[in-house]
Amino acid sequence: MTLQDARTPENGNGASGSSEPQIGWHKGYVSGSRPDLRVPVRRVHLTNGKDVTLYDTSGPYTDPHIDTDVRRGLAPLRENWIIARGDTEEYAGRPMRPEDDGLKHTSPRGGLKNLDAVFPGRPRQPRRGRDGAAVTQLAYAQRGEITAEMEYVAVRENVTPEFVRDEIAAGRAVLPSNINHPEIEPMIIGKNFLVKVNANIGNSAVTSSIEEEVEKMTWATRWGADTVMDLSTGRNIHTTREWVLRNSPVPIGTVPLYQALEKVDGKAEELTWEIYKDTVIEQAEQGVDYMTVHAGVLLRYVPLTARRKTGIVSRGGSIMAAWCLAHHKESFLYTHFEELCEILAAYDVTYSLGDGLRPGSIADANDEAQFAELRTLGELNTIAKRHGVQTMIEGPGHVPMHKIKENIDLQQEICEEAPFYTLGPLTTDIAPAYDHITSGIGAAMIAWWGTAMLCYVTPKEHLGLPDRDDVKTGVITYKIAAHAADLAKGHPGAQEWDDALSDARFEFRWEDQFNLALDPDTARAFHDQTLPAEPAKTAHFCSMCGPKFCSMKISQDIRREHGGDLAVDAEAGMAEKSAEFAAAGNRVYLPIAD
Amino acid sequence: MTLQDARTPENGNGASGSSEPQIGWHKGYVSGSRPDLRVPVRRVHLTNGKDVTLYDTSGPYTDPHIDTDVRRGLAPLRENWIIARGDTEEYAGRPMRPEDDGLKHTSPRGGLKNLDAVFPGRPRQPRRGRDGAAVTQLAYAQRGEITAEMEYVAVRENVTPEFVRDEIAAGRAVLPSNINHPEIEPMIIGKNFLVKVNANIGNSAVTSSIEEEVEKMTWATRWGADTVMDLSTGRNIHTTREWVLRNSPVPIGTVPLYQALEKVDGKAEELTWEIYKDTVIEQAEQGVDYMTVHAGVLLRYVPLTARRKTGIVSRGGSIMAAWCLAHHKESFLYTHFEELCEILAAYDVTYSLGDGLRPGSIADANDEAQFAELRTLGELNTIAKRHGVQTMIEGPGHVPMHKIKENIDLQQEICEEAPFYTLGPLTTDIAPAYDHITSGIGAAMIAWWGTAMLCYVTPKEHLGLPDRDDVKTGVITYKIAAHAADLAKGHPGAQEWDDALSDARFEFRWEDQFNLALDPDTARAFHDQTLPAEPAKTAHFCSMCGPKFCSMKISQDIRREHGGDLAVDAEAGMAEKSAEFAAAGNRVYLPIAD
C-alpha cells in the first residue's frame, strides 16, 4: 500500500491539490499565552493593502513551511499538554486482531497482513485516564480549569477562555479531543460559537480505498470541514481509520456499531455488549474524537415506525431496531450506557447521541417515533454529563421548512441546550442529485435557530458514493449554510467577511473577490470563461452587463460626481449638483471601443 | 442566420437535447370545458403501474406528436380566444427601425439587414385594445368574467376558475398574457398558487448570439422555468426578442429601459419619455408579457444610497438615478406613469415594478433607500390596478436570513398583497460561483412566507454570463426552492410528489426515483457512476452503504417479519414476534456473494 498519490492528487473541480497552499490564501498563526499555542488562520492579502483574517481548518497541509508526509502523520501538537496534566497513563493497549480489518475469514482477496505495520509513522502507545478518571474537557471545565485546548479555541473564536470554559461546563458546547488524537487543532461546537460543518468519508463494501479516504479527509478540511466522520464499513476499516487519524488536523468521528457489525459478519442479532465495548475501546485507543451511539432506539419505539413511508433510514437505528426485535429487549447500548460513559470519559471521547429513528422522507418528519427517541436522548444526555462525558445530539434528516423550528426548539429544551448536530435537513425529496441544495436550505435555517454543527450532504446522497468533487461541493454548500447562519445570528465579526467581499466587488477588485471567496479556484475559472484576458481582471465592468449597463460603475460615477453631499443633504443644492453633473459631461459609463 | 442548431443541441449536463422528449417523462393533456383548451402535463409512468402527473412548462418541444421548428414558431394557441372576445383590433403597427437592433451607426460589423425578415415565420400584424380599452385579464376579472386563460390556469393549478378570477380581481395574482403573444400556455403568479420560477436570458454587448438565447429559453422551460426574461443589451435586441417570443410557450418579460438606452447610445441623461414610450410600444407589439419598470426611483431617494457599501446595483435603478440627478427632477417613468398604464392596458402587458434601489450586499439590506422605494411602488401598484393593469412587485436582492421576513411582510402590506417577485435573496456574499445556493436558501424562505415568483440566480452570477449548464443548474435550484416552499405552505397536492419519490426509494424502484426527479438525467448518471451495471437498477441496496448496512432493506425486513402488527400493538406479543423473527433466520439483509 502506498499513499504517495495523496501528495500529487488529480485536480478536482478546483485548480489546486489538497496538500499544497491555496493560491490567494496565506497561512498565518495567532499566538496564545504560551509559545506552543499557535492558532492557524487564513489570511487574504487584499490589493488595497489591507488584510482579512479568516478561520482556517486546513491544517499544516497548506503551510508552505511545513513538510507533511502522510506516511509519517502530523506532529502531535497537543501531546505535551496532555502529558503535563498528569492525569493520564500510557498502557499496552488492546492487541490488533485480524477481524478489526474484516479479515476473519482469511478470504482469497484479503489475506493476513503484518499487523504491526498498520501505520508506518511514529510508534505510539495508547493513553487513558489514570485509575479510570474522567480526563475530559467537560470534567476540567466543571472543576473550573481552563485547558490549553480551551485557550486555543478561545483564540480561534475570538472570545475569552472563561467563556469557552463556561459553555463547556454547562454542556452547551463540546471540544472533541480524544487524548489519543494529539494531532488535532482544537475546535469547539456550540450554538454560541461559529456554526461548524462535518464531512463524511468512508469506504464501503462496494468501492473505494484507504488512499482515497485519507485524500478525501485532507480535501474536505482544505475547503472548510471542521470535523470528519469516517463511516467506513468495508475491509481495512481499522487501518483506514489509523491513517485518517494520524493525518487529520480535525476531530474524527465514527459509528463504532458499523465495525462491530462487521465483526459478527453482518448479523445484527449476534451483536453483544462485549463485542461492541471491545470495538469502542479499539477506536478510543486509536484516537477517535467522537462516536455516534444509537442508544435511544428503544424496543417500544420500533413499532412507531411501522406505518412510516420510509421506515428507519439510519443504518445504526435499523441495526439496533433489528437487534431489539430479535432479542425482545432493550439494546445493550441503552442498558450499558453508564458503563459506556466510563469508557468514553477515560479517553475524552465525545458522545454524538444518534437519531436512529430520524425521518427519511418529508412524510415522516416530526412523528412520534422521532420525538420519542429525542426524549430518551435527553435522559441519556443528563447521564453522560454526570459522568463528565461531552455530549452532542444528532438530528434529522428530511423535514419540510415549516417543521424545522420545532426540531431545534424541542431538542434544546429536552437536551438542556446540548449542541445539536443535524444532517441537513432536506426540505424536499424530489431532487436526487441536488440534495446538497435541498438540504443546504434546511441546514442554514436550523443553524440560524441554534444548531451547532451541520453534517454535510453531497450531490451523490441517495445515489452513490461521493468522489472528490462531490466532497468539495458538499463542504462549500455547507460552509455557505453555516456562514449564512452566523450572519443571521449576528455572530460578532461574521459580517466583516461579507463586507470585505462586497467592497472588493463595488471597487472592481476582481482578484480580491476571487481570493475572499469560499472557493477562489471556481470563482476565477467562471470569470475567465467569459472574459479570459488579464485586462478583464482590472476592468470596471464584467461580462454580465458590459460597461454601459454596469450599475456599480454608474453608482461609482454618481458618487464621484456628487460626492458625500448626497448623504449630507438630500434636497438642498441638488439643482446645482445637477448642473455640475452636466458640466462634467453627464458621463455615466466609460465608452469602450465598439 | 440559421437556428437549426437549436434542433440538435450539444448535450449540457444532462443527457437530452432541449427539443426532444425527456426520457422517463411523457407528455399528457388535461382538457377543459372546450376542445381547444388542453393543458399540458408531465406524466411519469411508474414501474408499479401507477402514474404521477406533474406540472409541465416545457411546451410543445417535448411532445413527440408535434413537429416544432424555431424558424416557423409555435402555434398561436390563444389567437381564437383573443379574437373571440371582440375587444381588440389589428393595426399596421410601428415600423421596425434600424436602431431597434442597435444599428444606428451603420457599423462595419453590422450593416442594415432586411427588416422584413426579422422572423421568417407566419406573418402577423400587432393587435391592441379597440379604442384604448383595457383588454387585460385584470379588467375581465374585475368585471366578473372568466376567460379561457383563467380556466386554463385553473385546470393547471387544480383549482376552480372562480378562484382564479377572484385572485386576479383582487390583485393578488397576475396572468401575464400579452394579446400579441398568443403562443403562450397561460400560467398564473400569486401566493395562493404554486410558486413560480423565472429564468433570465439575454445577450450582452460582450458575448452571445440570437441562436444561443432561443436555445437557452427552450432549455430553461424544459427544466421548469415558468417565465423567461430576455435581458438582452447588445445588438440585434429586437430580432432576438422576436425569435424568443415566437418560440416561447411561457410569458416573456423584459426591461424596456435597456433597449431605450441603446437607442441613445448609452447616455442616460439623453433618455426621454418619447424614446421610452416608443420602445414600450415596440415591445408590446412584439408580444412582451411583462415589463420591469423602475418607476419608484425618486430623486430624493438617490442620496439615501450614498453611504451604502454597494450603492445601486440594479441596472435600471442606476440608469434612472443618473437621469434624475442629471435633470434634477423626477423620472419620466414616474411622471408619465398613468400614460404608461394606458399603453400597457391596451396590450395586457403586466407591470413588474422594479426595485431599482434593492440592496446589493448583506450590509445594505433593508435600508431606508430600499423601503422608501417600496412605499412608492405601493402607490404605483394602486394606480396601475385602477387602470386595469396587472401588477407584480420586484424584491431583493442580498438579505441575511433574519432580515428576509420583514421584506415580504412589508411588501404584502404596502402593495395590497400584489404578487412579490424576488431575486433570491442571497443570504451571504462570500460565495461567488455558488450564488445559486446562497440565493436558493433565501428564495425558499421568502417563497414560504409568500413570494409568488422567484427570479433564478445561476452559478455565474457576479462572474460571467450563464451558459447552458448554468441555466439548467439555476432553474433546478430554484425549482427546489419553489417546491420546498409549496410544501411548507401546505399547498394542496405538493407533497404527493415527494411521497411518490419516497415510496420509490423505500421500495428500491430506482428507475422511478430517476424519472420522478427534477433532473432524471443527472440522478441516473450519478447512480451509474458508482454502480453502472443494469442489475444495480433493481438491487435492494446501493453503493452508499452496501447490502449489510442498508437501513431501508433492514426496515423492509423488519416490516415483512413483523407485519402490520408493529403498529397495532406496540408491546403485547413482542416476545412472540421476537421468536418468530429468530425462527425466520434473523435475516436482516440479503447476503451477497463476497
UniProtKB/TrEMBL annotation, chains A, B:
Polar residues: compositionally biased ranges: 1-21
Enzyme Commission number(s) of this protein: 4.1.99.17
Residues the record lists as binding substrate: N200, M229, Y258, H294, S314, R315, G316, D355, G356, L357, R358, E394, Y421
Entry similarity comment: Belongs to the ThiC family.
Keyword Iron attributed: yes
Residues given in the record as Zn(2+) binding sites: H398, H462
Enzyme class at the top of the EC tree: lyase
UniProt-annotated stretches for the region Disordered: 1-36, 92-134
Gene: thiC
Record GO biological process: thiamine biosynthetic process; thiamine diphosphate biosynthetic process
Co-factor binding comment: Binds 1 [4Fe-4S] cluster per subunit. The cluster is coordinated with 3 cysteines and an exchangeable S-adenosyl-L-methionine.
Job of this protein: Catalyzes the synthesis of the hydroxymethylpyrimidine phosphate (HMP-P) moiety of thiamine from aminoimidazole ribotide (AIR) in a radical S-adenosyl-L-methionine (SAM)-dependent reaction.
UniProt biased composition (Basic and acidic residues): 92-104
Reaction(s) catalysed (UniProt annotation): 5-amino-1-(5-phospho-beta-D-ribosyl)imidazole + S-adenosyl-L-methionine = 4-amino-2-methyl-5-(phosphooxymethyl)pyrimidine + CO + 5'-deoxyadenosine + formate + L-methionine + 3 H(+)
Species: Streptomyces caniferus
Cofactor: [4Fe-4S] cluster
Residues binding [4Fe-4S] cluster, per UniProt: C542, C545, C550
Pathway entry: Cofactor biosynthesis; thiamine diphosphate biosynthesis
Listed name of the protein: Phosphomethylpyrimidine synthase
Alphabetical list of Pfam families matching this protein: ThiC-associated (PF13667), ThiC_Rad_SAM (PF01964)
Keyword terms, alphabetized: 4Fe-4S, Iron, Iron-sulfur, Lyase, Metal-binding, S-adenosyl-L-methionine, Thiamine biosynthesis, Zinc
